[in-house]
Design brief:
The complex is a heterodimer.
Chain A: E1 6-14, H1 21-24, H2 44-47, E2 64-67, H3 79-87, E3 91-94, H4 99-108, E4 111-114, H5 117-129, E5 134-138, E6 143-146, E7 149-152, H6 157-165, H7 169-174, H8 177-185
Parallel strand pairs in A: 1-2, 2-3, 3-4
Antiparallel strand pairs in A: 1-5, 5-6, 6-7
Chain B: H1 8-14, E1 17-19, E2 27-30, E3 33-36, H2 42-51, E4 61-64, H3 90-106, E5 109-111, H4 121-127, E6 136-139, E7 153-156, H5 159-168, E8 170-173, E9 177-184, H6 193-204, E10 212-217, H7 219-222, H8 226-234, E11 243-245, H9 250-256, H10 265-276, E12 288-293, E13 300-302, E14 310-312, H11 326-339, E15 354-357, H12 359-362, H13 365-375, E16 385-388, H14 393-401, H15 404-411, E17 414-415, E18 436-439, E19 454-457, H16 460-469, H17 475-482
Parallel strand pairs in B: 3-4, 3-6, 4-5, 6-7, 9-10, 9-12, 10-11, 15-16, 15-18, 16-17, 18-19
Antiparallel strand pairs in B: 1-2, 2-8, 13-14
Chain lengths: 200, 484
């Protein structure tokens, strides 16, 4: 994973709450077996509407999405994160993220920055008044800045550290391989395995 | 150390901590069972391949094909599985064949399309006896919460986490907060587990459970069958909760005993003794609690585009102008526009085009039995199509042994092969733009069942009655109709 320290790019105001994963990428786009090529599915149903924010020239190249509360609810599909990243987004700002979406973002290097809703509203105003305004997201300082407005955001320290260092979760866990071995030796014998049994 | 007792969720968590986090780092949690399907796994297996890592515990991993398979194939009697050519879309076929290749390469047990044990991942785990109390269960699917019905800690994960579990059989996680959902009283006849969970979600909202594991408790929960408990836990994610749990009891043990992967002999006794100790201690404290009175519940249906937008069937489409909260009002306006509904319309007068009975929420044998009982002797209304899709091939077989397929077919419904089908608008079973469904599935998001499709979430009883009358209905409405 590439380290994330700071990113500056065009901010996109998405004035919608409860943007569920079926809106971020409908299931029909989940058929690929790679992690790339999902940009076409991003907000697929909404992009057919020419008034949709990403269809405005000023926002087309956006890389910082500013969305309403409860972003990413619903399915566990990491394709939602891939679709956003494949399109070019590096950060999403919202006052509340669904747990699984937030976790998936952290694994892939998409910054899910949690701001107060009042700060989100302020950002919306700035981005709508002057489309194409760039937003800077600074993970070291935990701040988001647009023009002369700066707000702080929340992110858990562990995810922040991993993003800053660009660390691979699996390699981190494998440092504890001895602990996993020891745990496995202590598991009760009645725990099932998936090895086929005669009656199955 | 505090003197307070622990909740069910805390006990299961504590028993799986491989390494306690030091505050900065999360806990490393051991995973007892990993369920795999074709949609969220290919990139994970690919990651293993790139890093040269094996699957650490193929014997704690099981795969099936469910999301992306058609439900209309016919089985060639000379073969044990359906022909992959039955999947017409080449991209879908590649995804399914990729799962087969990956399972072969990494030594993972797979139940392919048409196999006697194939089915929706959350139906086959319990039915094989692989889901047991006190376990940690994960799957790259948010409805993994289903397995919490057994007193397991079960939750959905993303593909990076799927790869993590394949490689290490663990996950780095911070403990969830705990919420007690106390469902007091008794359900009235015709009111089901689906109505309980839709009412819970309407009460706490789609974000209300965020960060929590829910524990469903109380008389109404204790009196539910295992399958009904699975329906309740299944939709925990629709309230934003990662997991939902129910303490194991005699109903749980009775369901498990004798299943293929249930403990045998002395192991069974040891297991039951351990399972009995899992329930939340009397002096344990939840981070928060909510109350629902089952006595007051009636059949519940959704009118909007998230599962929290639901009302009793006897109510009318709400008027957004009466909603004080600005965000909720805007959300309701948008939902009604998408759904093509007018405020004040009685929900019972909403006509549907399609009825879908199935999914990991309501695709088990009891669901089919309940719907068949309502349908028997009736016909699906003119202009309405009804799809009946068993949750697994074993459910399908059982239903055929009981003659339920005849009831559905006689009524004019379609009797399909097992799979996720119309729950998610990925495989060929989809709504067309503007088409309206009464669906026993779990999500009514815009486009969830197909682009432009309009979904009303309902119980199997309401689904069956709706199929007969053509408008959202409960079985009581059929009785009333026969009086005339």
């Amino acid at each position: 994973m590439e380290p994330f320290t700071q990113h500056t790019g065009v901010g996109v105001p998405l004035r919608r709450s409860n943007v569920d994963t079926d809106q971020i990428i409908p299931a029909v786009y989940l058929k690929r077996v790679t992690r790339t090529g999902f940009e076409d599915g991003l907000f697929a149903a909404w992009r057919g509407d020419e008034t949709f924010v990403l269809n405005h020239d000023a926002f087309r190249t956006g890389s910082v999405l500013v969305a309403g509360p409860d972003f990413g609810t619903g399915s566990s599909r990491e394709h939602a994160v891939w679709a956003l990243m494949n399109y070019g987004f590096r950060a999403v700002i919202s006052s509340r993220f669904a747990d699984i979406f937030r976790g998936n973002s952290g694994k892939q290097g998409l910054l899910a920055a949690e701001c107060e809703q009042s700060d989100v509203e302020q950002l919306w105003k700035i981005l709508e008044n002057d489309p194409g305004t760039e937003v800077t997201v600074d993970l070291r300082e935990k701040t988001v800045t647009a023009k002369d407005f700066t707000a702080s955001f929340r992110i858990d320290d562990y995810t922040r550290w991993r993003l800053l260092e660009g660390l691979d979760d699996i390699a981190l866990t494998l440092r504890y391989a001895d602990d996993i071995d020891a745990f496995e030796r202590s598991r009760p014998s009645y725990k099932p395995t998936t090895t086929p049994v005669a009656s199955a | 150390m505090t003197s307070t007792g622990r909740t069910l969720a805390e006990k299961v968590w504590d028993a799986h901590v491989v390494r306690r986090g030091d505050g900065a780092e999360p806990d490393v949690l051991y995973i007892d069972l990993h369920l795999v399907h074709e949609v969220t796994s290919p990139q994970a297996f690919d990651g293993l391949r790139l890093a040269g890592r094996p699957v650490r515990r193929p014997d704690l991993t099981i795969a099936t094909e469910d999301h992306n398979v058609p439900t209309t194939w016919t089985l060639d009697p000379s073969r044990k599985t359906a022909d992959i050519e039955a999947i017409e879309d080449p991209v879908s076929r590649t995804q399914v064949s990729t799962l087969r290749t990956n399972c072969e390469e990494f030594g993972v047990r797979l139940h392919p399309m048409g196999d006697a044990e194939q089915g929706i991942v959350h139906v086959i785990g319990p039915q094989l006896g692989l889901t047991q109390p006190g376990m940690t269960v994960v799957c790259g699917d948010s409805h993994t919460s289903t397995h919490g019905a057994f007193g397991a800690m079960a939750f959905g994960i993303g593909t990076s986490e799927v790869e993590h579990v394949l490689a290490t059989q663990t996950l780095p996680l911070r403990p969830f907060k705990t919420m007690a959902v106390n469902v007091t009283g008794k359900l009235r006849p015709g009111v089901t587990a689906k109505d309980i969970i839709l009412a819970v979600i309407a009460k706490i909202g789609t974000g209300g459970g965020q960060g929590y594991v829910l524990e469903y408790r109380g008389e109404a929960i204790e009196s539910l069958s295992m399958e009904a408990r699975m329906t309740v836990c299944n939709m925990s994610i629709e309230a934003g909760a990662r997991a939902g749990m129910i303490a194991p009891d005699e109903t749980t043990f009775e369901y498990l005993k004798g299943r293929p992967h249930a403990p045998q002999g002395a192991d069974w006794d040891d297991a039951v003794a351990a399972w009995r100790a899992l329930g939340t201690d009397d002096d344990a404290e939840f981070d928060t609690e909510v109350e629902i009175n089952a006595d007051e519940l009636t059949p519940f249906v959704t009118w909007g585009t998230n599962p929290g937008q639901g009302l009793p069937l006897g109510a009318s489409v709400p008027d957004p102008e009466q909603i004080a909260d600005e965000t909720a009002r805007y959300s309701a306006e948008k939902a009604l526009a998408y759904m093509g509904l007018t405020p004040g319309t009685p929900l019972r007068e909403i006509a549907v085009d399609t009825v879908f009975l199935g999914s990991c929420t309501n695709g088990r044998i009891e669901d089919l039995r309940a719907a068949a009982e309502v349908l028997a002797g009736h016909k699906v209304a003119d202009g309405v199509r009804m799809l009946v899709v068993p949750g697994s091939m074993r459910v399908r077989q059982l239903a055929e042994d009981e003659g339920l397929d005849k009831v559905f077919l006689d009524a004019g419904a379609e009797w399909r092969q097992a799979g996720c089908s119309m729950c998610l608008g990925m495989n060929p079973d989809q709504l067309t733009p503007g088409e309206r469904s009464a669906s026993t599935s779990n999500r009514n998001f815009e486009g969830r069942q197909g682009k432009g499709g309009r979904t009303h979430l309902v119980s199997p009883l309401v689904a069956a009655a709706t199929a007969v009358r053509g408008t959202l209905s409960s079985p009581e409405d059929l009785l009333a109709g026969s009086d005339h």
